[in-house]
């Protein structure tokens, strides 16, 4: 008897759920496409906690994420961060001395509202040790490049 009741309840729940899903699929007007959003953060008082231990004079970064107004949409909402960190002269010198840097190409980072200074004329370097130091702040380092004055970064929140 219990098996029959469980079977009936399970069938009823599955039937109800499939009906809701079918109605959602049949009404394309109720669905919205995800939109790429990039919020610019710059100026006094703006911080990004992954760089709290560094002495910098300014930061500009974009918080990049997919947004949907669809109440049934599921998926990751963790943002990406792309930007420029302007270091103090003392901090830039400290980073050069403390980490081993290797020459690299300027990273392929798409920034929407930020201009990176002198991307073609400067020597850009990368450091696995420095990247690990930033990654230890609970963020995935996609790319970080340093030219002696600024750090250009592309990070993904877990």
Task: Characterise the protein shown here.
The chain has 158 residues and is of the alpha+beta class. It is built from three helices and seven strands. The longest helix is centred in the N-terminal third of the chain and has 25 residues, at 2-26. It is elongated and about 80 Å long.
Question: What's the short story on this structure?
Answer:
The protein is built from 3 helices and 7 strands; from the N terminus they run αβββαββαββ.
How does the SSE layout of this entry go?
Elements: H1 2-26, E1 35-42, E2 56-67, E3 80-87, H2 89-98, E4 102-104, E5 124-126, H3 128-135, E6 139-146, E7 150-157
Give, in spatial order, the strands making up the sheet with the most strands: 1-2-3-7-6
End-to-end C-alpha gap: 48 Å
Main beta-sheet strand count, sense and barrel state: 5 strands, antiparallel
**Average pLDDT taken over every residue:** 81
Radius of gyration: 23 Å
- Overall geometric form: elongated
Order of helices and strands: HEEEHEEHEE
Structural class: alpha+beta
Q: Runs with pLDDT <50, length 5+?
A: 20-30
Count, helices = 3
- Provide the β-strand percentage band: 25-35%
Please tally the β strands and state the result: 7
- Helix percent reads 25-40%
């Amino acid at each position: 008897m219990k098996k029959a009741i469980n079977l009936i309840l399970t069938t009823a729940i599955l039937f109800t759920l499939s009906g809701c899903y079918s109605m959602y699929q049949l009404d394309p007007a109720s669905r919205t496409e995800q939109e790429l959003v990039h919020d610019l953060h710059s100026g006094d008082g703006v911080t990004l906690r992954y760089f709290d231990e560094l002495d910098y004079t300014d930061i500009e970064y974009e918080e990049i994420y997919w947004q949907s107004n669809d109440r049934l949409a599921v998926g990751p909402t963790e943002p990406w961060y792309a930007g420029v960190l302007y270091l103090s002269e003392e901090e830039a010198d400290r980073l050069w001395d403390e980490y081993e840097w290797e020459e690299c190409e300027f990273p392929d980072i798409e920034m929407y509202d930020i201009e990176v200074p002198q991307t073609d004329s400067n020597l850009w370097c990368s450091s696995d040790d420095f990247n690990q130091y930033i990654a230890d702040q609970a963020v995935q380092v996609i790319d970080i490049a340093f030219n002696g004055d600024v750090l250009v970064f592309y990070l993904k929140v877990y």
